[in-house]
Sequence to fold (109 residues):
Amino acid sequence: MLGGIDNQLFLTSFGGFFALLFLMFMLKWAFARGKSVVERPSKIGDESEYGMLESVAQPLNYIEGQILKEKLTKSGIRSNLVQTTSGPRLMVFKDQVAIARSILANPEL
Fold:
């Protein structure tokens, strides 16, 4: 006992103060505008808005796109099926466009 004060009660209260301070900073960080860790909902864009990806196929529907994507995956080409403003598109990286188009053009694979 230090000067008539219960040390255990003092330290517990002091620890609670730091825990509350930590939670305040965590909530401020989590809900800060523009810095949230929660993913924003995706938006449909034009096929030219996908950076390093280029369209190699324009399937009529999503199921046909999945079949074409599986064909490329079996051949070792990484692809992505995206929904654009002009319909579904099968996208690959620019250095693999010629290979992907030749694989998709060949009905035997």
Q: What stands out?
A: Residues 7-30 form the longest helix (24 residues). The longest strand covers residues 87-93. The helical segments are 7-30, 62-74, 97-105. Strands lie at 53-57, 79-84, 87-93.
